[in-house]
Amino acid sequence: MCTYYEVPGREQLVLHFDDVPEEEWRDKMSPLYRGPFLRAKGEAGRELVVGQWGMIPPHSKTHIPTGKDGKRLSTVNARREGMAKSWTYGGPWRKGQRCIIPAQLYV
To answer: Less Cβ around it within 10 Å: N or C end of the chain?
Structure first.
């Protein structure tokens, strides 16, 4: 997975999604920045929302991922074969929490 990408402009997102959030985001994304992503909504729906890039473990007291020992973690990439067992990714993975990131250019 690439750790930097360019987000399509608001006008491009409006062409593909019914409801584009009013929140602002950066054009060039990297870990811990806020940007648009598509997630499931209801039984068969979807919604475009703005959120922070990176998995924040449940015990973290800030929006910067930290381990059990309080040290900063990189939670940008994960391997499929370890997702279900991971203390960081395991819960969301088992619940089926997935998203799609709109990206138009890798930097």
So the answer is: N
